[in-house]
Amino acid sequence: MMLAALDSSIVNTALPRMVADLGGLAHLSWVVTGFMLSSTITTPLYGKLSDSFGRRDMFAVSISIFLLGSVLCGASRSMDELIIFRAVQGLGAGGLLVLAQAAIGDVVSPRDRPRYQGLFTAVFGLCSVGGPVLGGVITQALSWRWIFYVNLPIGAAALVMMWVGMPRARPDGPPGRAGRVDYAGSALLAGLTASLLLLLAGGGNQFAWVSAQAGGLLAVSLVSLALFVWNESVAREPLIRLALFRNKIFARGSVVGGMVMFAMFGALVFTPLYFQLVFGMSPARSGLMILPQVGCMMCSSILGGRIISRLGRYHPFLLAGVGLEAFSLAALAMCAHVAAPPLLFILAMGTLGLGMGMGMPNLTNAVQNAVAHSELGAATGAMVFIRSLGGAVGVAASGAIMTARLGDIHALTAHGIVGMAPAARVALAHAYRNALAGSFTLSAVVIAVAFGLVLGLPERRLRKEIDA
Fold it and tell me: pTM for the complete prediction?
């Protein structure tokens, strides 16, 4: 989990230095997009394969590919090479989160999982804040290349600990056979994910939303989706068994998870820049504004996990968590709309962290508790896949709102505000404040709908046995 969380946040700090050394500013976004594409595509495949071959073997494959990609990224000599090697790194990263969460189900009963999910959430939150700081320190003291090389000792430690501490196969039986892998479904899901994420990443930037490129990618996405659903209905061993979606807890839990990630990514991705442009904070101080959110998320996830393990019930905490998120995002939208002082933002982000700490881990607990152990990896992979797509759509939606509301002023943010005339700074801050208020409002509406879905989510008491 630490390996995945650090890599998702440590790279962004070094992007300007990468451009300075390698050039290729026009293709900089692909350093992030390429990684996101390959990691999202492989997520459900790792989950399904781990049900057949065991978590340990797939962990070894995932971490090894990730570390190979890290070495290649650090040795890149051009922006094109860096983009390609980041995609290779993503092929391994796709298994890190899903296998880490699925592995808990092999050794911990559903009743005890909330304690462990709380710890995982705390690690992820801590690395999300520490990653940008560590990335800046490493880039300044050594080189941006070392933000990739730092993965090697962490990955080696994870590989050794996993190899020593995990059983080779699942506790309930031997590994399955490679011939039952749904390769056609994997290819179709790859085409669906690639076309959809390319549409979301390029729409409004590389091409207009109403254009031949956008229409073509949308058509490919819809055709791939239709073919994927048909293939999964007839495949002997489908990548994602469609019958899972007849399980109300799995279906609603996965959809709510995607909506939560939509809201979180859509609302928070531009928040640090808001603190810099509107409040005039330095990048370091704007990063510190995130600490209340992360600190509250760590506390609520750890303490809530212990309480849930003792009671065996997760629904009241899940309901409270999603409700707090909806309230907090609405409060943030109001703060941005009325130009509230930083203290009110801190309070709202603190309550948002409390909600996130109670919400996301319990969605995982609910889904894993509702499926058979033989399908634990596939169900977890599908859930993580839907969350990743939700986050990507959220970023795209928030970016579209930003582009629409900022208009020509948006171009000023690309060059910073140093040397900008006072009147221009005021106009930029006002426009950005209104734009972010729109993003927060959209996220609050989405979370409110998710809260309604959670209200109707049935609860199964957490089992005390590992096998379903």
Answer: 0.76
